[in-house]
Request: fold
Amino acid sequence: MYIQESIKTKYPPGDLALWIFICAELLVFAIFFAAYAFTRASNIELFNQYQATLNTDLALLNTIALLTSSYFVVSAIISIKENKQKQSTRFLFLSIIGGCAFLIMKMTEYSHHMSEGINLTTNLFYMFYLSLTFFHFMHVILGIMILLVLWLNTRKGLYTADNHDGLVSGGAYWHMVDLVWLILFPLIYIMK
Amino acid sequence: MKYESQSVAKLYFIAAIGLFVGQIVFGLIMGLQYVMGDFLFPEIPFNVARMVHTNLLIVWLLFGFMGASYYLVPEEAETELHSPMLAKLMFWVFLVAGALTILGYLLVPYAALAEMTGNHLLPTMGREFLEQPTITKIGIVIVALTFLYNIAFTILKGRKTVITLVLLLGLAGLAIFFLFSFYNPDNLVKDKFYWWFVVHLWVEGVWELIMASILAFVLIKTTGVDREIIEKWLYIIIAMALITGLIGTGHHFFWIGAPEYWLWWGSIFSALEPIPFFMMTVFAFNMVNKRRINHPNQPAVLWALGTAVMAFLGAGVWGFMHTLAPVNYYTHGTQITAAHGHMAFYGAYVMIVLAIISYAMPMMRGRKACNSAASQIVEMWSFWLMTISMVFITLFLTGAGILQVWLQRFSDEPMSFMVVQEKIELFYWMREGAGLVFLIGLLLYVYSFFIGGKERTVEDKV
Amino acid sequence: MEKSYRTNNIIFATLVLLTLFTWILGQKDIIGDISEIIDGKAFFLILLSIAIIKVHLIGDFFMHLNTVSGFWRWIITLWVMLTGSFIAIAFLL
Reply:
């Protein structure tokens, strides 16, 4: 269903049920972020000390990977609104590449930590760092799986200019994964 | 009833209700033993009454789930059951095994039962809720596998709907997680882990899937709302239930010797477990408000709405109350847990089974859609009596729990367990009174099946 | 439709630039010790504000909430404001 830009709707584009799911997910992350911030408040030195050991360059590249991927999803939706299925399929493929790039970079980071023998019990900072990023990591995997389904559906021509609710809903989930990282990145890697 | 073979569910439902009555009787005996320690001693000691009370609950709910599956799967799959014979046979196997086990609990000392059933060959006995002799456990696995086979083949040969797939996922999970009960490591920490893999992953994991799918079925039938809408909700509810429920297992790992990070993981994820229950409440009321038909079976709709509300209160709110590690540090294993357990089991699982029984039973007994108006009135009375008395049981136990935490663990001069138990006696008496009302409600429920009369139509008032 | 592409490009470029800015603020070897330039609280507030703006942009443009009115219009913004306030309370108090 194509939404005229001038007419405002009452509910967000896509499936409302999925938006409720997105809200629930955001709530989980909000609690995790608040828990991190408040625990840090009573262990400031420890957190600052170990935050300095993180690789902010990779985190920057990861942020850009997710942003680019999100950008391509939006492009895919714009294309489908013009009934350009082929172009939309290509955009979706690129967004999947973006997600995979994130996973690969994150895994190099994890393997680096593992080689140093760091795990959940090392200290409170690493406990939060690993828990939060890994929880987000799992969401990226889920998001990529959703993107794969969208990609296959678009390839099959299931979405058209008049009917692409599924694409918009799946896209919204992927943007959620992205925007959570936009908080996570400064919060864990940079803020002190 | 659209398919002949659906009627096997009747056996299961009758057994379920019979065992339910038994469970409540033992609950009352045990409730009295809280305040009169030697009541029925030595015939039925407290530990035996407790074992019978909890084991009967599990067994009758399993009967209820199986009956519900046998009823709704053929209708959803639009085909006869794969093997009604097998379903009947397994019913008797399960019933006899269950009855023998309960008799074993009551007639011989537990240690003697363990020896009689060869527990030393594969020790699995002696753990809370999983007290069944190893041979009974093996029986449960056989019954469960045969049941799954029967259900899965019915689904495979017919129409596949989201409801049946979610139900199958739940039932398969139920069978798989039960296998952890066969592993009984000597290491106490490990032992607790595996014990929770059964207990938690059942009631806060896969059982929720079963509940959600039965609820969705009853709502589709009684409201006439589009299947697509109901299925969409079902997807989200089970996704949330699984995410929060699986990782939420961590709230049992706080004090068993597991690493510290479980304090965080357990607290955060289990704190979110109310969300799927809340969604279920919103879902149920939404569907009933959007209904396209007025179903003449009023009690079935009432049970369906009731289960959504009470599950949220009992499992959601009362669970949340003591799930955060800093709170649980004080409340662990007190009457707060008992309060939560009572309302959660009643709200989530007892009521959903009663909802499907209420919906299906009239049709299996040869009616078109529902019972007579007189019968429905009695059944709705039983709904309110049981539900309200369960609310009071929960409130009294919560009161007892708060006082217990205060006197025994929080105050400057903590008192010993038994001294505190005496101080909270009044709450136990009130709980026992509420329990008696619950039994009256349950007996009314049973009585409502025996009230005949002309079948109610939508126009008749109830 | 050309307009949609253009908006999309502008938003994307803004997001990347803000991200780069956030990253630079964390680089000791580029800008030196940040505490010598600005107060720690101001540093935190700048980072938090950038994050909030970025999330708001994602909600409004990528998730198309600017086509919605009423409660859902603000759902993402509301979330980031609330989460941001919790973080701010913990960092500043």
